[in-house]
Structures are given as C-alpha cells and as structure tokens.
Write a structure and sequence with these properties.
674 residues; alpha+beta; five-stranded mixed beta sheet; four-stranded antiparallel beta sheet; 23 helices; 19% strand
Amino acid sequence: MRLREYFFREDKTDQDNGYSKFKKLSEWTPPSGRDRWLDMYVQAVRDDIIKGLHRNFTMNVTKQEEEALRELLYDDSIVIRPSDKSSGVVILNRVDYEDEINKDLNDNDTYAESKEDLTMKIENKIKRSVEKMYKQQTITKEMRGFLLPKGSRPGKVQGNPKLHKKNHPFRTIINGIKHPTANMAEIVENELMENVKKLSSYIKDTTDFLRKLGKVKQPVPKNTIMFCLDVKSLYPSIPRKEAREACETALKQRVNKSIQTECVLEMLDLVLENNNFSFNGKNFIQTEGTAIGSHLGMNYACTFLGDWESKIFRKTLFLPTQYWRYVDDVWGLWEHGLEKLKEFYQLINSIHPRIQTELRVSTEEIEFLDVKISIKEGILKTDLFCKDTDRHMYLHATSSHPNSVKKSIPYGLGIRAKRICSEEDGYTIQRNKIKGYLKERGYAKNIIENQLKKVDNLKREDLLEYNTKEQSSRVPLILTYSRALPNVHLILKKNQKILKQSEKMQKVFTEPPIVSFKRDRNIEDILVSKKHNLLFYRKEYGCTQCGKNCALCDHMMETKKFRDNQGNKFNIQGTINCKTVGVIYCIFCVSCDKNLYVGQTGDTLYQRMLLNFSKIKTKKTDDPVANHFCEIAHSTTDLKVVGIKKVYGERILREVNSPGADFQKGSSLKVGCI
C-alpha cells in the first residue's frame, strides 16, 4: 500500500509503463510518515489481526503423528518421493534409489562427472557475458540486473518413479533453482514461445485439444486408426547442434525481436553448456540435451521437434489426417492402413538416433493426456482418463487451508469432467466417482453435492471457451494461512473508513485490499523435499575459506563455533565462506583478543569486507571498525572475521540474539559495535 501511494499519479503518467517481468525484484518499501491516514489504516489493520488471533484451536496433526513424521524424516535408510504423473508418494530403499540415479547419471552421452563444483566459475562467466551484452546495448539495464547471478548453487538431482510404466523407471529431474543460468534460461524460453505457438502441431492444453478435436470432419472413414507417439526421455536426448539450428531459424522469424537473435543464441549456448549439478557429494555437468527442471525446457524442446516433424513430413507421401503434439506426446488419425502406419513409425525413429518414440494404436479407443478418445459409428467421443496408479489424493478436508480452497476442489473436478466428457452419461459416471473420492478425503456430502450442482447447470460448449480474467487493481495482502487468523477480509473492510477520511487516499485506494493466502509448509515439504536435501545435500555447518585464495581467505576464521566476549561458545548456523550471500558476521581483533563488531550483509561476505578494508586503508576514522585498526600497534593483519549465521531472505536484524536459535541463546552480541 505504501508503494501504491508513493507512485500514485492522478494523471496516471509513468505508471505501469512497459512493465517487464524480467527485472530484479526490489524489497524497498517507502517509509511511514508520508500520509497519516495511511499510517493509521496500516496500524489499525495490524492491531486488529493481532487482537483477533484465535488462541485456542486444534492442530490437524496429533502428537503421535508428529513423532511418526520425525522418525520418517530422520530415517536415513529410506527415501520418500512423489510418484511421476499421479498423486501419491513412494517409499524407496535408499540404496536402490541411489543405484537408479547413478545408473542414469552414468549415461556418458548425456552427463559427465567433474572433479570440482563449477558453480562459481560458471557464475563469473555469466557475469562477464551479461556485462558485455549491456555494454554493447543488446540488453536493457533492467534485464542486466535480472540476469546477473548472485548466491548461486549447483543444480540438485531428484528422481520420481514412473509407477504407470513397466519396471517403474525414474524421471530424473535437475532442480535448477538459484543456478547461475536460471534467469538466462527463462529469457531464452520466452523468446522461443512465439514460434512454438505457430506450429501446426501445437497443443496448449487439454482444452485446446478438445477444441481441435471438435473441428475434425465427422464421421471419420471406417478404417481410421488412432495413434499416439511418446518421445522417450525427450529433454536429455535433444541433440544440441540440430536444436540450435532450429532455434536460430525460429528466432530470426520472430515478429517481436525485443532481443537480437545473436544475443539470444549466446544466452542459449551459455545455459546449455554450463548446466552443472551435484548428487550425493559428486559433481556433474550435462553434455547433451537440456535438463528436466530447467527453465529452458518446453519451448526449446518444441522448437526442435517442430523442425524434426517437418523433416518427417517431407520424406513421406502418406501423412496423418490429423497430427497434434503436446510437448513429447503426439495424437493423430491415420487413414492409410496399419502397414503404412508402421512404415511411418519406422521413418520417425530414423530421423535422428537420439530421438526415439513409442507407438500405440487403436481403432476403438486410446488415451491421450487426461482424455480417453473413442470412435463410435464414425464419431469421436471423449471421456475422462485417469491412470490406474492415480490414488486421487486430493486436498484432505482437515487440511489447514481456507474453506474457499476446499470448496473449489469438488467444483474444479466437476468442471474438468464436464469439459472432457462429450456424453452426458459419461459425465454422470465421473460425477459419482468424484463424490466417492472426496468422501474418502473427508469432505461432507452436502458440500460436494452443492458444488457439483453448480457444474450440472453449466453448458459444455461454454467450458471449452477460454476465459480472460481482468487484472484486479486491488492491493494484495499476502499472508501465510493459519487457523489462528481472524476474518481478515472483514478487518480490511471495516478499516476502509479510515482511508475515506482523506481525499487523496480515496483516489489511491478505491477498494479495500484483497487478501491472498499462501500455504504454510506441508507434510510433503518435510518428508519429500527436506528429507531429500538432508540425505543427499547436507552440508556441515561452519565457517571456512572459499578455497580460491581470495583477498578475504587469510582473514577468515575457520571454525564450527564462535564465542562472545564473555567466553560463551555458540554453534555457527549455516555453511558460510567468503562468497556466501546474506550473512551475519562478527569482526574480531587478534591483538585485543575480542569481538569488535557484528554486522549483516545482503551481498557476499567478501564484498562487504572489501569495503571495510578500504576504509582502514584510507584511514576513515569516523568508522569505528576502521578507527580501531588504524590505532598504534594495529593493522589489517589483526582483523579476523567469522560468519555466524546464514540469512535466507530476512531483512536487517536489530539484534543477533533474537530468540529461537542455538547460538543466540545467552549471547550478548548485537548488530553494531560491541
């Protein structure tokens, strides 16, 4: 709200002027005191929420269940992963899980083991390339800020079992969050989108497929064969040389060339050639294809497959009547007989040795995406399809979510069934199944029925149309949902009268803010994500040198504990070195044998300490740290620094000894001079 007030202009000039999602997010907020009515409103809302918190509410997890979760979390003999393409989780023996992942990573055509973690080298390479692009004026200042990596880490390997396939192979995913190339990959993927949408085989989603299916001339000939193709392990199998050529052609054909083609191709090369990751203490780099989990994924793959398809169609006289593809899944109609279809399939698998497909055919019914398509008397019929392995583990009725979210579950499932089922009888069958699934998940019969009745009154043809939502101008109040929260909607509405006291505030905020809840951590976060990180990416806490012999290395105290000036020892929280971003640190004087200063930086510890060294060198005696080391019998060799806590996205702390952390209990250390 303070940002809205700060940037508000009655003439609306300079507002929302060419907003780009590709810019670095700012955490800056205007200070209070600019408008007393806004200050009163913010304070009143905050006070009402705190006063209205429910002190007595029951948790939806019992103490026994908490203990069971704790045992599962710290049982190192098992791994818990979500099943691929279906709800539910899979408990695996850790040794078997490691063997499956290592088997995939030992594919020498796609991955290679590296002797060291290449993340910092890659980060520096990306920074140099971005600065060069900016100096050449091929990217804007905003995009430069977006592209420059900070606090990077290697990708993390995860494997999800494909329960719907024989022998349950793994889908190997490389989590690229915070990777040096993550934002660059996002830009390249965005630039390829224009070409992908123009492909004749392109399918946006299930709704788009159903709309296209409805336009097929019917009845279809008697001998029509439905077929599906599934490209095996598409992302890691994409040949980079051919894919780059396809991307270059696509980029040159763009109508909106916001970034020069040569610049996008340079970004593409940087992303593909520098995809490093780690697993279980070993470091790897991908040598072919792109990673499942990278931002450079769907549009990159579809651009290559679009070119691959054109080569196929140029080499045969017998073409499908219909041919549509959703990423690596193809559905089509064939009217030239089964033998010619087999020849077509052989041709497909001969185009490139790395791109191989699996074929399914039927003259009666076949599954594609979440749709079962059948031919009855020459007419194409559709019904909802769910894999046999789907456990239908929808959000439980006792889960800690707003009631509006829970009510939307039966309604959303009903909409999906109504849209997909071309026959009313099919919808009725799916409707009854939905009621059964949700009853098993604890939903009340009347809630399910009331929501499904709303769906009953809707027309299927209306559900096949895309609805464009108007963007709301209301300011969102984002809160983590809790059962302890009062009715925040009413609190915002009640206090709106404060803003109406000001003529300016009435213009700035014509409506109350809208409440937007985000979920808290759930069981999956703990047993799947956290457990996986503990098993395979656990780093020992402590403060160490970066190992690059940088200007700070000689001044870093390598230790797992630090002590305050009273002699009390405390554990260091986090894995910290010279290049760690977001650190609470302590400066220590060797000559005086005492701590001098505790500070916090959002940059790397290296960058912050270089500033301190500069102040000492230039004798900035107005700075207490510099003044101390400029005293007689002192020099920078007496300066030592220890990182005492890794900070994750927190704002500047007023005190290091806030409650809750082991090293803080009993410590007298505070941010600032000691």
